[in-house]
Every structure is written in C-alpha cells, then in structure tokens.
Design a protein that fits this description.
The complex is a heterodimer of chains A (337) and B (151).
Chain A lengths: L2 E2 L3 E17 L1 H4 L9 E2 L10 H20 L8 E5 L6 H7 L6 E3 L6 H14 L5 E8 L1 H8 L15 E2 L2 E8 L5 E7 L14 H20 L8 E4 L3 H14 L8 E3 H4 L11 E2 L1 H18 L4 E9 L3 H5 L6 E10 L4
Parallel strand pairs in A: 2-3, 4-5, 4-6, 7-12, 10-11, 10-13
Antiparallel strand pairs in A: 1-2, 2-8, 2-9, 6-8, 9-14, 13-14
Helix pairs in contact in A: 2-3, 6-7
Chain B lengths: L9 H6 L7 H29 L4 H21 L3 H8 L1 H4 L2 H14 L5 H8 L5 H24 L1
The chains are: A alpha/beta (337), B mainly alpha (151).
C-alpha cells in the first residue's frame, strides 16, 4: 500500500539516501554544526561578484560534491529536483541549465528540502527514476534583498525575526542499499492562522508543522515514541514551543524528542535573533548532522518536518496573511549486512 | 484542538510566546545614539563657523553634508546596519539614517547596472520620505499663506 490515510506515502520499495553533500557560508561554519558540513566558504560572496551568483555557486558546489563522493557521473542521474527562495526560483533554474539532467523545479519556501526529497523518493520508488537528486539552497543576502531590506540598511529587526541560513544541501536518492532508508513522507496542506508579521515566521509556521505531524501520526497509527527525533525546519525559538503545546493538546508529547534546525545551526553568542531559517537551514542540519548520527547508530528513526512560509513582499503589503506549509519525511537507519 | 489554538484565537495565543521588546532600554539606546549624532552635528557646525568663517546659518549645509558622507562611508563599510540594529530610531531618524537608506539601496542594486540598478533603486526606501516631505511642506506652506492673507 502506497497511500496511507489522507496525506502519507509509504514507500513500497526500499529506497535509500545514497549520498549527501552540504556546503555552508561563514556564519554557519562558526556554529556548533560547522564541522559536519562538507565544505564551508569563508566569504559570504563565495568569491563571486554578486549575491545571486554566490548562491548559485553554493548549490552547484553541493551537487558536484555529492556526485563526486558517490563516484557517479551527471549523465547517470535521471532526475534533478530543486528549488530556492528567489523569484522564479532562479538559483535552481540557472544551475539546472548547466546540468544534462531532466529537471523539475519546485517552490515550497523553506520546506523545499523535504518537498524535493518526498517527490524524488516517490519517483524512485515508482521506478520512474533510478537515481534522483534533490537539492536546495538559500543565501542570507539574496533573501534579505528578496524579502526584507537592502543588506546594509540600518532597520532594527524585532526579536522574533530569524536569520536566513547561507548554504546548500544535495541528496542523492536511489534503490541502492545504504545506511539510511527513506521510509515514508507526509505531504502538508497550506495552513493560514491569520498571522501577518513577516518578521515572525515561527508563529506563522507552527500550525503547519502541527497539522503535518498530527496527520502523520494518524495516517500511520504512530505516536512520538516511534521516533528518536522529530526535527522541524525553522520554527525558531518562538514557533517551537507553540508547536509542542499544540501537539500536547492532542495528547502527543514531543518535549524530549523535538528539536528545530533553526535552533541547532547557530550558537547562542551569534547575533541571529530567534534562530536560523531558509531552505538551507533544514537541509544543512539534516543532510549533515542528523544523517551522521543515523549512520553512527545514535539515532534509529527520525521524522524531518521542513516548514515554509509561502508569502511574498507584495502580498504582505496588500495586507494578506501568511500561508504556510510543512512537509515531513521519515528516515530510518538500515542495518547493513 | 482546544479553543486556545483555534485559527480565530491563534494570533492572541501566539503573543504569549513572542519575546517582548524592552521598550525602556530600546528608547534609552535610541535617545543616546540619536543624541550623540546630534552632538556630532553641532560640533561640525561649530567647526565650520570657527575654522571656515561660515555664519551659523550657512554652516548647517556643510555640516549636514559631512554627516551624510560619514553615514555613506559607514554604510559601505558594513557598520551602519549594525548601529541601526542597536540604536533603532536613534540612527534612523537623523539625516544619517536617510543617507543610509539611499546608500544601502544603491549598493544593493549595483549588480543590475548604473542606470536600471543604482539610479532606479537608490530612492526605493527614501522615496516615500521625499514624497511626504514635499507634500507636507506644500500643505503647511499653503496654510501659512492663507493665514497671512487673513491676518
């Protein structure tokens, strides 16, 4: 059975994370997970002449590294799924033009990491592809320009705001056995709880994460005890406690096993307000640290719920509230024979 | 789900989780930094009147120009946005904040070229200040003119 309950896909074939690669910016390197990234740039511009080129370099680099690590060539890849935060998904589209791989572009804001992973997994499971790569990127300066103010503008940000992570993550998915199996995915619905502050996306996205996690438990008849870790994307210090309290009201206590990528990627001395955000936030933490722990056996089964705020600055100015979404994917350690 | 987190009540419920800004501390910071920028401006006026023999009224223009130059340089060096985060309105309201809004937008759009990038976008943030400045000056001027006619 592939479709479980209302929103969950249970993969029939055994499909695996064949390889991953993570590339980060300088601030992420200084964070507590800095040592888990495959490569980190010391310069926010990554040696390029503008921010958009820098973001493309991050994405391109993470794809190249992933394929190098697996010793596989680009023409062996059947499908490339990617997305980012910029208008017309320019990072993904412009990187895709350099690759000889059929391409599906996706936008899920900061939920793109798990959106691309879920769809790529389904396509590999259904044998429409043998090797698929799911990749995403975000860059602090391109996101500031896209969603906020010019990077050097001296506006005061509130404590609820988050800091867009600079980095890119790539995952190669196939049916070749590895330590990490992709077991299931829950596709989120768009939620809108009438939040309208673009400087507080944690509060806006918590209901989306709540809905996806609750539905996941219902669809598969599971409880929090079935997981060692439930990791949300970028709910930050504001949204994370809201999510826990919302789940608690439905009888799901996730206090001991929940964490948020946005709270893990930086240390408390870094000036990042309520935490990290952006497509690369969940990608860097999951494809780096969490997968290392699964490979070592310190974690057995994790549910990664990437959260996205689907607003645009124009919609915010037109006084629209912020629609949000969360997609979850379950990764389980596979004992190799 | 309880009433607390119902979509209609959610905004209120979420407020309890949002960190509160320390208004007194923030106001003090804004007052001190804004005051220091003004003291610097006064120092510049004194400098131009004493060293270059400007009258006090004339010295205002070179003093403001110097503040604008300083702000633009600090923006380019990546310092002014950090000052802005610390001081809030204290560094946004003085003329240095206005200069920062123009310089930062110009820098941001350098990658799109001199005409359609820098020139088109440099007043992106400052434009509204100019529009409302001109409109309110016009309205106040009209009121003043009418009062003078009646008196």
């Amino acid at each position: 059975m592939r479709k479980m309950g209302n929103q969950t896909w249970l993969f029939e074939n055994k499909i695996f994370v064949s390889e991953t690669a993570t590339v980060s910016g300088p601030r992420e390197k200084e964070g507590p997970l800095g040592h888990t990234f495959d490569y980190s740039y010391d310069d926010l511009r990554c040696g390029e002449t503008n921010w958009e080129l820098a973001e493309r370099k991050l994405l391109q680099h993470s794809i190249d590294l992933c394929l190098q690590k697996k010793k596989i060539t680009k023409d062996q890849i059947d499908l490339f799924l990617s997305g980012d935060l910029l208008n017309q998904n320019v990072t993904a589209n412009y990187v895709a033009r350099t690759l000889p791989i059929p391409f599906l572009c996706m936008f899920g804001a900061c939920s793109t990491s798990m959106e691309t992973t879920a769809v790529a997994s389904a396509l590999v499971d259904a044998k429409f592809a043998d090797y698929a790569i799911a990749a995403t990127s975000s860059h602090n300066a391109t996101a500031e320009r896209q969603f906020r103010y010019p990077t050097e503008y001296g506006a005061q940000k509130p404590l609820t705001s988050t800091t867009t992570v600079t980095g890119a993550g790539t995952m190669l998915i196939s049916r070749d056995q590895s330590d990490i199996r992709i077991e299931s995915a829950t596709i989120g619905k768009v939620m809108d709880y009438h939040m309208d502050d673009p400087f507080d996306m944690g509060s806006a996205m918590a209901p989306a994460a709540y809905d996806t996690i609750k539905t996941h438990f219902q669809d598969l008849g599971r409880t929090p005890q079935d997981y060692d870790l439930i990791l949300t994307g970028d709910l930050s210090a504001v949204g994370s406690p809201i999510l826990k309290d919302m789940l608690k009201e439905d009888g799901f206590n996730v206090d001991d096993i929940h964490n948020d990528s946005g709270l893990m990627i930086y240390n408390s001395e870094q000036p990042v307000f309520a935490g990290g955000s952006g497509c690369a936030c969940s990608a860097l933490v999951t494809y780096g640290h969490v997968f290392n722990e699964l490979r070592k056996g310190n974690l057995k089964k994790v549910f990664i719920v990437a959260t996205g705020a689907l607003m645009s600055p124009v919609m915010v100015q037109q006084k629209e509230t912020i629609p949000t979404i969360a997609h979850g994917v379950v990764f389980a350690r596979e004992e190799m024979n | 789900m309880s009433q607390k987190f119902h979509p209609d009540n959610y905004k209120k419920a979420a407020k309890a989780y949002q960190p509160k800004p320390n208004l007194l501390f923030n106001c003090s910071k804004a007052f001190i930094i804004g005051g220091l920028i003004s003291v610097l401006g006064q120092g510049l006026i004194d400098f131009y009147t004493n060293v270059f023999d400007f009258t006090e009224k004339e010295a205002g223009n070179p003093a403001i120009t110097t503040l604008i130059l300083l702000s633009a340089i600090l923006t380019g060096l990546g310092v002014y946005d950090k000052l802005g985060q610390f001081a809030g309105a204290g560094s946004a309201v003085p003329v240095t904040g206005f200069a920062n809004s123009i310089t930062s937008a110009a820098l941001e759009h350098k990658s799109e070229g001199l005409v359609l990038g820098v020139a088109t976008n440099m007043f992106k943030l400052a434009g509204s200040v100019i529009v409302f400045g001109v409109v309110s000056a016009y309205v106040v001027g009209m009121i003043r003119y009418l009062i003078q006619q009646w008196m």
